[in-house]
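Risk register update: the risk that structure generation would not scale has been downgraded. Supporting records follow, first protein first.
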Amino acid sequence: MTAAAITTTRTRAAGRWLRHVVNLPFVLPLLIVVVLAFDLPLMLAVGWSFRDGKTYDFTWGNYQDFFTSKVYATVLWRTFVVAATVTACCALLAYPLALWISRLRSRGQVIAICAVVIPFWVSILVRTYAWIVVLGNGGIVNRVLKDLALADKPVSFLYNQFGVTLGMVNVLLPFMVLPLYAAMLKVDNRLTQVAQTLGAPDRTVFWKVFFPITLPTLMASMVLVFILSLGFFITPAVLGGGKVPMIANMMDLLINRFSRWETAAAISVMLLVITLAFYALYQWLRGRTT
């Protein structure tokens, strides 16, 4: 490397460092808020997870309780099962819905996307309680079934795993529809036209050309929905009626009812590790879509 090239490299590095210094006062307040509101509580939770609740000494006992307790294992397994079920249901509903929206005219697409986005404007708590009005024992659906003589007694739609899954799908479905819709709009129509020109039927064009292009987005969206499902609290608490506790509900009991902060901190750390692993998978799949 010549002296001129070295000088140019040093000048660029000094310019970047100077820009960082100049911009630091603008970023510093936000950095302080992030450290105090997010990073510090997280570090405290990690510290509590290694602390004995009585002697306050360092211990691995909280993690040993987590891995050896059947109660924790059952709740963790139920959380994964519900999250996987919700993810699969969202995928089965979101893909054809996004495909249908992408095939509409411009005005129809705007109306359909508005219909998908509007639920974001309503509180999750309100949307969750609305399901009780619709599917409760005295709700609209059970009254219709009774009036049509299709059921002698109310059908238990809620306060079970079905009700929790239904409520979570309702909340998380837009998180899968919108990325799929955006990916489908980016598909070059010339690819499908070439396949049709070569004599491929519509079904073959879809499975051999269109679906493989949108598959990475589908997989990334499924991972995102799965991550969001792991930390759900309101929907399982309301629509589960305490009969379908998930890991967030169990942590609430440990903190507010049993005052076992150290055990709850250990569970939160384990959930964080699992979430970060799936987030890394999501980023890898998302990178394949670009």
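Supporting record for the second protein:
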Amino acid sequence: MNRPRRLKRDLRRKVNTRKARSRILVVCEGERTEVDYLKGITSFFGALPVEVEAVGLGRDPLQVVQEAIDRFHEARVNARRTKDANLAFDEVWCLVDVDEHTRLEQALALGRREEVKVVVSNPCFELWLLYHFQELTSGVHRTVLLKEKLPKYLSGYNKRLPVNFPYAAHPKAKARALRAAPKHTETCHKGPNPSTTVWLLIDAIRNAGDAKRR
């Protein structure tokens, strides 16, 4: 796979096509929660000139990364065929959990090799959600997060996010994530329990939009 950041340099946009927007592909291990969150945070940012295509796959990390590669390639082929660089992706990300996956390390190696930015949450994505509400610096099991901790703030949590989820607290969530795992600051790496680098993706979405505004 060619490097995502070079995608649009050799593609000529059609005359009178839609206004250029940064396109970010995010393929998620989960089918609902991650997609809900990405839609919500993108909406929270308002008229940011960035398009986030979130795909909930419901498969293990290795399959998630491979799907991201395939979709990236397909979009690039379409962009070349139509001579419309707007169809290509500027960045490719994946959101995966540690859980009990046996092929996580293979997924991370593939991400590093193909320059797909793989974000790892340990034990799972719900940790990032919890950081919008509270600190957590000691190890925690996935079941405890889903059944005990999150329901304190999201009544009846069932993998769907309410419309009033506090997206505005994402800077606090980032700060809490960094306090819990200060060395876990790169994609394609597994951090300790608890740790998450979802904030890297959130920063990337905002930065891509700000770059288009300049």
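The two ends are 29 Å apart (CA to CA). On this basis the risk owner (M.S.) recommends closing the item.
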